[in-house]
């Protein structure tokens, strides 16, 4: 299975490299991005390939942050459940160590009936 993954990702990388080489002229075009805030206008000129890479990296960062938030929530739930399990085990152990008073009372009642 590990080899299949390696072959798959190698094929994906090869396709990306071939795509970049075949579209090198297009990818080197400069793209001008501007943000008009009515008070000030910000303008940036960057190559298209850099814009694509930065967008991908930004998506990965947001995806990891979103996943990490969910992971923290689940980890908190697991800790709470583990505390509850520990508490219930301690309660069960303490109940196991109690003398069985009902059996003693039942035995005493049966002895009284036999004597009487």
List the helices and strands and how they pair.
Layout: H1 2-22, H2 24-27, E1 30-36, E2 41-47, H3 48-96, H4 101-115
Antiparallel strand pairs: 1-2
What does this structure look like?
By secondary structure, the protein is an alpha+beta fold. 77% of the residues lie in helices and 12% in strands. It contains four helices and two strands. Strands 1-2 form a two-stranded antiparallel ribbon. The longest helix has 49 residues, at 48-96.
Lateral strand order in the biggest sheet: 1-2
The SSE string, one letter per element, is HHEEHH
Low-confidence stretches: none
| Overall helicity | over 70%
- Strand residue percentage: 5-15%
Write a brief caption for the model.
The protein is an alpha+beta fold.
Main attributes?
single chain; 116 residues; alpha+beta; 4 helices
């Amino acid at each position: 299975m590990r080899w299949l993954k390696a072959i798959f990702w190698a094929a994906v990388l090869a396709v990306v490299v071939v795509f970049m080489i075949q579209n090198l002229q297009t990818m080197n075009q400069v793209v001008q991005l501007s943000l008009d805030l009515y008070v000030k206008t910000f303008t940036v000129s960057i190559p298209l390939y850099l814009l694509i890479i930065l967008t991908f990296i930004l998506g990965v960062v947001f995806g990891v942050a979103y996943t990490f938030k969910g992971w923290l929530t689940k980890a908190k739930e697991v800790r709470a459940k583990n505390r509850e399990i520990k508490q219930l085990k301690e309660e069960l152990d303490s109940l196991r160590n109690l003398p069985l008073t009902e059996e003693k009372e039942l035995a005493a009642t049966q002895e009284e009936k036999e004597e009487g």
